[in-house]
Design goal:
- The chain is mainly α and 150 residues long.
- The longest helix is centred in the middle third of the chain and has 34 residues, at 36-69.
- Helix 1 (9-32) packs antiparallel against helix 2 (36-69), helix 2 runs antiparallel to helix 3 (75-97) and helix 3 (75-97) packs antiparallel against helix 4 (102-134).
- The protein contains five helices and no strands.
- The protein has helices at 9-32, 36-69, 75-97, 102-134, 140-145.
Length: 150
């Protein structure tokens, strides 16, 4: 349809979340099975995806939202703080991956997955819909093109 956006910010970034959920679940499953090679492959893919996703949010979406709303200390500051917390936790998970200890891997991956799920819910139910409303000229594809990803 003419004039209709191809993909909303909500749809695009929520799809990223679902992909990341699947990659992390695959890494955890591989750890359960003792397949550390597969675990490392899935975890590395997960890590690349989540870092790219955070970069899109922090370098493109959040600044655009802050300009449009005039608010810089609100939901985006909470999301940035949670990103830092998640990246610290991911460093810990990556550190134990080489030890091939499923119990330790899950001891770190479980709380991380819970934090990531809570974070995703806030973005998907509150922040992304607000962004779609406040940034009508920006769709999901445009958003991802605004950031140079490796």
């Amino acid at each position: 349809m003419a004039g209709r956006r191809m993909s909303t910010i909500t749809a695009t970034l929520t799809a990223d979340h679902r992909c990341e959920d699947r990659l992390l679940a695959a890494a955890r499953q591989a750890a359960d099975e003792g397949d550390w090679s597969a675990c490392a492959l899935h975890f590395d893919a997960f890590l690349r995806s989540i870092k790219d996703h955070m970069k899109i949010e922090e370098e493109a979406l959040f600044p655009a939202f802050e300009r449009a709303s005039g608010v810089s200390g609100g939901p985006t500051s909470v999301m940035r703080r949670e990103h830092r917390q998640m990246l610290t936790m991911l460093d810990g998970i990556a550190g134990v991956l080489g030890a091939r200890d499923a119990r330790e891997f899950h001891a770190l991956a479980g709380p991380f997955a819970a934090l990531m799920a809570a974070h995703s819910i806030k973005e998907e139910r509150v922040l992304y819909p607000l962004c779609d409303e406040m940034l009508p000229g920006l769709d999901g594809e445009q958003l991802t093109r605004m950031v140079s990803l490796p």
